[in-house]
Structures are given as structure tokens and as C-alpha cells.
Amino acid sequence: MKTEDLIAALAADNDTKAAPLSRAFALDLALGFLVSAIGFFLFLGLRDTFFASLDHPRFLFKFVFTLTMACTGLVLTWRLSRPGVAAGLARRAVLLAPALVLAACLAEMASVPADQWGARLIGHNAVHCLTLIPLMALAPLAGLFLALKHGAPSDPQRAGAAAAFAASGLAATLYAMNCPDDSPFFVAVWYMIATSVVVALGWVAGGRLLRW
After folding, report:
1. Are residues 182 and 163 in contact, defined by beta-carbon separation less than 8 angstroms?
2. Residue from 190, 41, 45, 62 nearest 128 by CA
3. What is the DSSP letter of 190?
4. How far is CA 167 from each of CA 4, 25, 147, 161, 174, rounded to the nearest angstrom?
5. What are phi and psi of 164, to 5 degrees?
6. What is the CA 186 to chain-centroid distance, rounded?
């Protein structure tokens, strides 16, 4: 059977498998995120000023950014999990989170003196950010890979990268609750570098583990 014919046959079977696949996504992702959340609260926990910071725009923006990453990444992963389903706008939607942090950086540049930019970019916990976000992304990423195994992604590398982007958003959401650095400069540099590491891992792992 030609590859195109096989993809067409699998795509025709999507309607009957969509519900089981969605349940697998929900369950596997929930289990993976639960593992990371338990680890976060056991070993890190909320920062001391968490509740006092809930009315600070910079602090709240971190969650807007990370949850946008997670949501757009999950939508794209879901689209790529089934053969013959076009990614459509979901492929462009993942650019929303970087666009938001870029806009926040421009606002920061307009409101903060230039001599403070460097200190805000470097922050206090760059090493922790680069370490903890990838570590906490592993369990959600494993859950999404298990879910993708229930599907049949026709582009396993991109599916793996999309899953990694979503997992990074979930991990970054957890880390943001502990991170003392709220500047968009810090988020744009260190959160995005950590995410890039995970996405590269997802791309490589997807090409090896999600092929069919």
C-alpha cells in the first residue's frame, strides 16, 4: 500500500477513534502534569510573595504567557496527532506566546530606565529556570507522547516538537509560581531558552518514537 493510501485510510478512521484518542490525551496529559505538580510542591513550592503578587501585572503576565504556550501547543499537538488533519491556524497560533512576550518587553522598555534593563534580564535564578523548566516538562511530555502513540501523526517530528512546546508551557506555569523574577526581559530570554531545549528534545524524540 502506498503511503498516501495508508494516510487516507487512517484519516477515514478518525471519526471512530476521535473519542478514545481524546480520552487518552486527557488521561495521559493529566497524569504527566500531576507528576510534575507533585514534584513542584514537594521540592519547590510557592514563592514567599506569591499571594501578595497576585495584583502585580508583571507577575500575572508570566501566567498569561505560559498558559498561552500550553494551550496553543496542546491544540497543535491534537491536530498533528491524526493523519490527514491539517494543522491550519493552530500552526500559527503557537507564535502568539512569543508575540505576547515581545509586546511585554516593549512595554517594559518604555516604563523602565535603560540602566535597569540588564539587571532585569539577568535576574536572580536564570540557572534554576534553565534547569527546572526542562525537568518539569519531562513528565507532561512523556504523557503527550503516550497519547500520540494512540494516534498516527504523519509528521512525527513536528508532533513531538508541538508536544514539547505544550509541556514546556505547563512546566513554566509551575515554575512561574516559584520564580522571583517577573520582568518580561527575564521571561523572554530564559523561559524561551528553556522551552527551546525541550522543543529540540521533542523534535528528535518524535522522529524516533512516533514513527509508524
Report:
1. no
2. 190
3. I
4. 31, 13, 13, 10, 11
5. -65, -40
6. 17
- Report the alpha-carbon distance of residue 79 to residue 154 in Å, rounded: 11
Q: What DSSP line would sit under 135-187, residue for residue? A: HHHHHHHHHHHHHHHHS--SSHHHHHHHHHHHHHHHHHHHHHTT-----HHHI
pLDDT tens track for 152-198: 788 999 999 999 999 999 999 999 999 999 999 999 999 999 999 99
φ/ψ of 183, rounded to 5, equals -65, 140
End-to-end, the C-alpha distance of the chain in Å comes to 14
Under 8 Å between Cβ of 160 and 203 = yes
Give residue limits of the domains in the chain: 18-209
Residues 159 and 80: beta-carbon distance below 8 Å: yes
Q: Give dist(CA 80, CA 203) in Å, integer.
A: 13
* Residue of 159, 136, 133, 135 lying closest to 148 (CA atoms): 159
What is the signed CA dihedral for 51, 54, 55, 59, rounded to 10 degrees?
Answer: 130
Q: Where are the alpha helices (DSSP H) in the chain?
A: 3-12, 14-43, 57-80, 89-93, 96-111, 117-122, 126-150, 156-176, 184-186, 192-209
Give pLDDT, residue 4: 56
